[in-house]
Amino acid sequence: MKKPLRYILLGITLLALQQVRSQENNPYRDSVVQLYGVVMTADSLQGIPSCSVIVEGKGRGTVTSYDGVFSIAVLKGDKITFSSVGFKDRSILIPHNLEGNQYSVIQLLVTDTAYLPATILKPRPSREQFERDFVNVKISDDLYETARKNTDEATRRILIRSMPADGREAVNYQLRQQATKAYYSGQVPPMNILNPAAWADFIQAWKRGDFKSKN
Q1: In this structure, are residues 92 and 107 in contact, taking their beta carbons and an 8 Å threshold?
Q2: Which of 18, 116, 130, 208 has an alpha carbon 20 to 30 Å from 4's alpha carbon atom?
Q3: For 112-140, what is each residue's pLDDT tens digit?
Q4: Buried b (16+ CB within 10 A) or exposed e, 184-201
Q5: Whether the Cβ atoms of residue 95 and residue 119 lie closer than 8 Å to each other
Q6: What are 47-103's pLDDT values in tens digits?
Q7: CB 95 within 8 A of CB 35
Q8: Which Pfam family, an example, fits this chain (predicted)?
């Protein structure tokens, strides 16, 4: 039992020595750098809050605090880009031969001027000016004829029948159906074929042309 245990301890020792050697030979063992500093405006030296500090090509970064202070872990050789709305982007490169594992920077950003197209502000017309322009506007005969046809009573009735009902009309129709069903509950509903008022409405609709073909 002692010989297998001795082999197990020897294997664990060799494995530990191999891990120590791999760490010593790892080129990234001492490449981690704590980057910290402050981002300020170049003209007034005011801290820029919420400025993006991005490690290019790594998909990670951080933002500055209310005073423009930031801190992030990077690698030697990384490219860091500082960007903020209203300022030009700036980039720095972490030195490969940096001694130690800390790197501080004071980054100044220059204001980026954006020129917008000219905007002309006009006063709101008065009621008299609006009425004058509305009355004097020229309407072509084609548009006037189209408006006249669309306002015809028979055309409007055809449009009402052909267009689908909206939500309000559908709900009102359903409520009327439920009210009628509850009103005539337990009895036979009246037959409109014997209702003189219904016949009068039918005759009036026939005279108006409500039953004409839509085409």
Answers
A1: yes
A2: 18
A3: 888 888 888 888 788 888 888 888 887 77
A4: eeeeeeeeeeeeeeeeee
A5: no
A6: 999 999 999 988 899 999 999 999 999 999 999 999 999 899 999 999 988 888 899
A7: no
A8: CarbopepD_reg_2
